[in-house]
C-alpha cells in the first residue's frame, strides 16, 4: 500500500510511505486494542519514570494465551517505556517541549508467541512550561541616527526569541535604565522611537538597556545594551580634518619570514567624529607584485608572498589613509620596507663547466685558469672560499681559496694524461666542473699513407671533377694536428687541391693530345708556427678519348696524269693525321664520291690514289667537270668508337697526248659568188676540230693548191677566205681550192 499524509490545510507530505501487508495463513485471531488511538499529555518537566497512560488489548474468547506489549515505532531516542504485561507507558528520559512537543508512538500487542500482531497509535502531547527566558540574537548592537530626525522616528528594532510557546513565549520589551527621556519602546514590537529631537543635546551617545520579559508564571527576562548611539549618528561634525599618520615610515623585515608575517601596523588619526573620523587604509603604489597585504580596517600590513632580498631588497609603498566623510579626506605616507638578508643563497659559479688548455712540460706554479662564483647574499653571507674536490689528478693542481685561481703543482705530460676533469667548490655546496686539457707540442709531421700515387683519368673529365682524395695523419693535437694540403711544382693550371679535405680536382678540361702525363708533389703541413710538412709524388696519366677527327694535310688537292697510262698508276698520296692514340688515332682512307665507273682506287692504309683503268683525255663523261678532269671526295676515318671522319677534295687532271688529227666540219665546201663582188669581200670560212687539247688542238689553215693566181686569201688561224683580186666569169668560171688543216 502507498500511504500519503495531509495536514489540516490540505498540504500533502513531501514523500509517501510504502506499507507492506503480509497475509498469514493461520486460524488464530490477534489480541485487539480497545481503542485504535490513545491520547495522553504530560508536562515537559515530568520526572523520569512517571506514569503517562495505559493501553489495553483484549484476547480472543476462549484464549488461554497471555497478551504482551511493545513500542514498535515513534521513539527513536528512547524517551518512553511500556510495561510488556500491563501496557503501562512511562517516561524513561527527560522530555523537552521545545525539542518535540508531540510524540506519536505505535504500540503492538502479541498473543503468546503467535506471529499475528495488532497495533494502536498513542499520541502524547508534551506540555510546555516556562523554562526558557527570552534571548536576544546579539548581546550588543549599535545604531546611528541623524540629529534632524523628528519625534516618533523609529531608530531601532529590538528582537528577542523565546523557545517556549503560548504565554510562556510571548515577549514584552522595556527600557530598563534611562539616561535620557529622548527614547521610548513599543512593549510588543520592540521598536525604539524618538520622543523628542536631540539636536540641542550636548550628549552624543546614548546607552539604552532594553529588557525582554515573557508572559509566563513566573516571567523570565533578558537584557540587551545599546551604546554609542549619538556619537555615531548625529551629524553635527564637519569633515574638516584629514587623517594624519602617527606610525613610523620605516620598517625592516627578514627575508625568510612566512607568508602572513606582520610587518607594520599603520596608524592614522582623524580628530573628526563618527564616520568623518573612521579611517581606512589603502596601498596606492609600490606593491605591483602584490608582496604585501594591508587590512584596510586595522591597518595591519602583512606579507602576502615569500620575500627574497636578492630579487628586491627594498619596497617603497605609498599608503593612503582615507576617512569616511563626504567628501572624503585623505593623507598619504611613503612606507619604506627594508628586506634584511638571510644566508639563503647558494653560491653559483659563473660557468658550470670551465674548459682551458695548459702547455705540457711547464714548471710548477703555471697559471691555469680562474674560476668565479657569485653569492647574492650580502655582507659576510656573500664571502666565498674555493677548494678542489678530490678526484683523478687533482693533486697536480692547487686552488687559491680566496681568488679562485688554479695553478699547477707539478709539470704536466700530455702523452701521460691529456685531459684533467676537476671539480671545484666554494664553501657552501655549489660545484663547478673544470675541464683542463694539456696543450700539445708540435713534435709530429703530417704523414701521407704512401710516398707516391699513380692514377689514370679520362681526358673527357669535366672541370671540377675530383680525381683523388689524399689523406695525411698528424698525431699532434689542436693546430699542431690540423693538416692543410697544397700542391707544389707546376700543374699547368690543370689541378687544384682542397686545403682542408685534401681532395684533388681538375680546374679545367684535360687534353691528352696536349699533355698526356702530369707529375707534381702534394704537400701536407700543419698549422703551427714551424710548419713541419711531408710530401708525396702524384703521377696523373691521361687516358685517351676519341675526341679528335683525322685531319687531312690539305682540304683540296690537285694532281694530273697522262692519258693512256696503264691501270694501277700512282697519281698522288694524301695524308690525314689523328692526334688520338691507339685505335682512336689509326686512320683509314676511302673514296666517298666522284669515282664513277671505279676509275680510281686508293690504298686504305697509305692514302695512295691510283688509276684503276686506262684514261682517255678525249672521252668526255657526264661525271667530270670538264672533259679532262675528275673531282674526287676522299674520306679519312679513325678506328675509334664511334668513328670520327673528315673529307678532302682531289681534282685530277688527265693530260692530253696528240693522238687525234684535225677534222673539217665538211669534206667539201661549195661557194657561189658574183663576179662583181669587190676585192676584200668575205667569201667563206672553213672549220676543223681536233679532239686533243692544248697545243695539240691548236689548228692552222693553209691553201695548198688551186690559188695559183692569188685570187683568194686564207686566214691561217680562223679559216676565213677573202677575195683578193677581181673575178671575171668569162675568164674563170670555177676555182677549186685545196685547204689543209694542221
UniProtKB/TrEMBL annotation:
Key word Repeat present: yes
Protein's UniProt name: PCD23 protein
Pfam families for the chain: Cadherin (PF00028)
The keyword rRNA-binding is annotated on this UniProt entry: no
SUPFAM superfamilies in alphabetical order: Cadherin-like
InterPro entries: Cadherin-like_dom, Cadherin-like_sf, Cadherin_CS
Superkingdom of source: Eukaryota
Molecular function per GO: calcium ion binding
TM stretches of this protein: none
Record organism: Alca torda (Razorbill)
Amino acid at each position: 500500500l502507498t500511504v500519503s499524509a495531509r495536514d489540516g490545510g490540505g498540504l500533502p507530505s513531501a514523500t509517501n510511505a510504502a506499507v507492506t501487508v503480509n497475509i498469514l495463513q493461520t486460524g488464530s485471531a490477534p489480541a485487539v486494542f480497545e481503542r485504535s488511538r490513545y491520547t495522553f499529555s504530560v508536562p515537559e518537566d515530568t520526572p523520569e519514570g512517571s506514569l503517562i497512560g495505559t493501553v489495553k488489548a483484549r484476547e480472543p474468547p476462549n484464549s488461554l494465551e497471555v497478551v504482551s506489549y511493545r513500542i514498535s515505532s515513534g521513539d527513536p531516542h528512547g524517551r518512553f517505556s511500556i510495561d510488556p504485561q500491563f501496557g503501562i507507558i512511562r517516561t524513561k528520559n527527560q522530555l523537552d517541549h521545545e525539542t518535540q512537543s508531540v510524540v506519536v508512538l505505535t504500540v503492538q500487542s502479541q498473543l503468546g508467541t503467535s506471529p499475528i500482531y495488532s497495533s494502536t497509535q498513542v499520541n502524547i502531547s508534551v506540555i510546555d512550561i516556562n523554562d526558557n527566558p527570552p534571548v536576544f540574537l546579539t548581546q550588543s548592537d549599535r545604531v546611528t541616527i541623524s540629529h534632524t530626525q523628528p519625534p516618533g522616528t523609529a531608530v531601532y528594532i529590538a528582537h528577542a526569541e523565546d523557545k517556549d510557546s503560548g504565554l510562556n513565549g510571548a515577549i514584552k520589551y522595556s527600557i530598563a535604565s534611562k539616561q535620557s527621556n529622548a527614547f521610548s519602546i513599543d512593549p510588543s514590537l520592540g521598536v525604539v522611537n524618538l520622543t523628542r529631537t536631540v539636536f540641542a543635546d550636548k550628549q552624543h551617545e546614548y546607552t539604552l538597556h532594553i529588557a525582554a520579559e515573557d508572559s509566563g508564571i513566573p516571567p523570565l527576562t533578558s537584557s540587551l545594551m545599546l551604546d554609542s548611539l549619538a556619537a555615531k549618528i548625529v551629524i553635527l561634525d564637519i569633515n574638516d580634518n584629514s587623517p594624519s599618520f602617527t606610525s613610523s615610515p620605516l620598517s625592516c623585515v627578514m627575508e625568510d619570514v612566512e607568508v602572513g608575517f606582520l610587518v607594520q601596523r599603520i596608524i592614522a588619526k582623524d580628530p573628526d567624529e563618527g564616520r568623518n573620523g573612521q579611517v581606512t587604509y589603502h596601498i596606492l603604489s609600490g606593491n605591483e607584485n602584490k608582496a604585501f597585504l594591508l587590512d584596510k580596517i586595522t591597518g595591519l600590513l602583512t606579507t602576502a608572498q615569500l620575500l627574497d632580498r636578492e630579487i628586491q631588497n627594498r619596497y617603497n609603498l605609498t599608503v593612503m589613509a582615507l576617512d569616511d566623510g563626504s567628501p572624503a579626506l585623505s593623507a598619504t605616507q611613503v612606507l619604506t620596507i627594508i628586506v634584511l638578508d638571510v644566508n639563503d643563497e647558494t653560491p653559483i659559479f659563473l660557468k658550470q663547466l670551465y674548459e682551458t688548455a695548459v702547455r705540457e712540460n711547464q714548471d710548477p706554479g703555471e697559471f691555469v685558469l680562474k674560476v668565479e662564483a657569485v653569492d647574492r647574499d650580502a655582507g659576510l653571507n656573500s664571502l666565498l672560499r674555493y677548494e678542489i674536490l678530490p678526484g683523478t689528478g687533482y693533486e697536480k693542481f692547487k686552488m687559491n681559496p680566496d681568488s679562485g685561481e688554479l695553478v699547477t703543482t707539478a709539470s704536466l705530460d700530455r702523452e701521460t694524461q691529456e685531459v684533467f676533469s676537476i671539480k671545484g667548490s666554494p664553501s657552501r655546496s655549489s660545484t663547478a666542473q673544470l675541464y683542463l686539457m694539456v696543450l700539445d707540442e708540435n713534435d709530429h709531421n703530417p704523414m701521407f699513407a704512401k710516398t707516391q700515387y699513380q692514377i689514370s683519368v679520362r681526358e673527357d673529365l669535366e672541370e671540377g671533377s675530383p680525381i683523388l682524395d689524399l689523406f695525411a695523419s698528424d698525431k699532434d693535437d689542436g693546430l699542431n694536428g690540423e693538416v692543410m694540403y697544397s700542391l707544389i711544382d707546376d700543374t699547368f693550371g690543370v689541378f687544384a687541391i682542397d686545403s682542408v679535405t685534401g681532395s684533388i680536382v681538375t680546374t679545367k678540361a684535360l687534353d691528352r693530345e696536349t699533355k698526356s702525363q702530369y707529375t707534381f708533389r702534394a704537400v701536407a703541413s700543419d698549422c703551427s708556427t714551424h710548419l713541419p710538412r711531408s710530401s708525396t709524388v702524384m703521377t696523373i696519366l691521361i687516358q685517351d678519348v676519341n675526341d679528335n677527327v683525322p685531319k687531312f694535310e690539305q682540304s683540296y688537292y690537285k694532281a694530273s696524269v697522262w692519258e693512256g697510262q696503264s691501270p694501277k698508276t700512282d697519281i698522288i698520296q694524301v695524308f690525314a693525321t689523328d692526334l688520338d692514340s691507339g685505335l682512336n688515332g689509326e686512320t683509314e682512307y676511302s673514296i666517298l664520291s666522284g669515282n664513277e665507273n671505279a676509275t680510281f682506287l686508293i690504298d686504305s692504309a697509305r692514302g695512295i690514289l691510283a688509276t684503276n683503268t686506262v684514261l682517255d683525255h678525249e672521252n668526255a663523261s657526264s661525271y667530270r667537270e670538264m672533259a679532262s678532269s675528275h673531282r674526287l671526295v676522299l674520306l679519312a676515318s679513325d678506328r675509334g668508337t664511334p668513328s670520327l671522319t673528315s673529307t678532302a677534295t682531289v681534282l685530277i687532271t688527265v693530260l692530253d697526248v696528240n693522238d687525234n688529227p684535225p677534222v673539217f666540219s665538211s669534206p667539201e665546201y661549195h661557194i657561189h659568188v658574183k663576179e662583181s663582188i669587190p676585192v676584200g669581200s668575205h667569201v667563206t670560212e672553213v672549220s676543223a676540230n681536233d679532239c686533243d687539247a692544248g697545243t695539240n688542238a691548236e689548228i692552222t689553215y693553209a691553201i695548198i693548191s688551186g690559188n695559183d693566181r692569188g685570187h683568194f686569201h686564207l686566214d691561217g688561224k680562223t679559216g676565213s677566205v677573202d677575195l683578193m683580186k677581181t673575178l671575171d666569169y668569162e675568164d674563170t668560171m670555177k676555182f677549186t681550192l685545196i685547204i689543209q688543216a694542221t
